[in-house]
Amino acid sequence: MNYEAVIESILFTMGDSVELSKLAEVLELDKKEVKDILEQMQKNYEAEDRGITITELDGAYQMCTKPQMYDYLIKVAKQPKHYALTDVLLETLSIIAYKQPITRAEIEKIRGVSCSHAVSRLVDYNLVCELGRLDAPGRPLLFGTTEEFLRTFGVSSIEELPILNQDQLENFKREAEEEMQMKMDI
User: Fold this and answer.
1) Does residue 180 sit within a domain?
2) Which of 90, 171, 161, 78 is nearest to 127 (CA)?
3) How many angstroms separate the CA atoms of 125 and 149, rounded?
4) What is the C-alpha to C-alpha distance for residues 60 and 156, in angstroms, rounded to an integer?
5) Could you give the dihedral angle defined by the CA atoms of residues 44, 47, 53 and 54, in that order, rounded to the nearest 10 degrees?
6) In its keyword annotation, does this UniProt entry include Cytoplasm (predicted)?
7) pTM exceeding 0.70
8) N or C: which terminal CB in the chain sees fewer CB atoms within 10 Å?
């Protein structure tokens, strides 16, 4: 059996990521063997300078177009999905990424302002999704990042996000408080 061909056809057809365990189950191999095959396929695509690659996204794999091909895709697709991430959206997204799962109230406590619009926009952009409800009074929604977030920011898992030291966090807090004070003074 040509395992690479089977994996390639599954990833191409599914479009979305497929968990390593599911691929192993279909191929009737253990996860380590499938991971080795996937890594070899990634090396082959790179060595052959192909337009596609296989990307790992939090323990799942997806066939993707290489970022270098983006300009050519624009010419065909005319208007690819484009969204603007304002400072407010990036700040809200950062809080969700580092604190997930997190409720809207917790985000607002950190930011000091309402975040309903920002969270809704991030959900629309498929960078954030509802993960369920907190087992607390009112059963508030919990939010977390999506695979699209990982793809957009070029990381394969949340663990790859940069670690912020305490000094950076204090600086961010101070800047946010100063910004809020300036807005209130206006």
Assistant:
1) yes
2) 90
3) 9
4) 9
5) 40
6) yes
7) no
8) C
Domain that includes residue 10, residue range: 3-75
Q: Alpha-carbon distance 34 to 39, whole Å?
A: 9
In 3D, which of 29, 20, 31 has the Cα closest to residue 2? 29
Taken in order 12, 16, 21, 25, the sign of the CA dihedral is negative
Q: How far apart are CA 59 and CA 11, in angstroms?
A: 14
* 14 within 8 A of 47, measured Cβ to Cβ: no
The answer as to whether 82 is a domain residue is: no
d(CA 172, CA 87): 13
Cα–Cα nearest to 66, from 82, 44, 51, 45: 51
pLDDT tens string for the chain (186 positions)? 899 999 999 999 998 899 999 999 999 999 999 999 999 999 999 999 899 999 998 889 999 988 888 888 877 776 656 678 888 999 999 999 999 999 999 999 888 889 999 999 999 999 999 999 988 888 999 999 999 999 888 888 888 888 876 776 677 667 666 665 665 666
Q: How many domains does the chain contain in total?
A: 2
- Reduced to 3 states (helix: H, G, I; strand: E, B; else coil), residue 34 is helix
- If asked whether residues 65 and 98 sit together in one domain, one would say no
Adjacent-strand bridge partners of 133: 141
Please tell me the distance from the alpha carbon of residue 108 to that of residue 92, in angstroms, as a whole number: 9
**Do 55 and 101 share a domain, yes or no?**
no
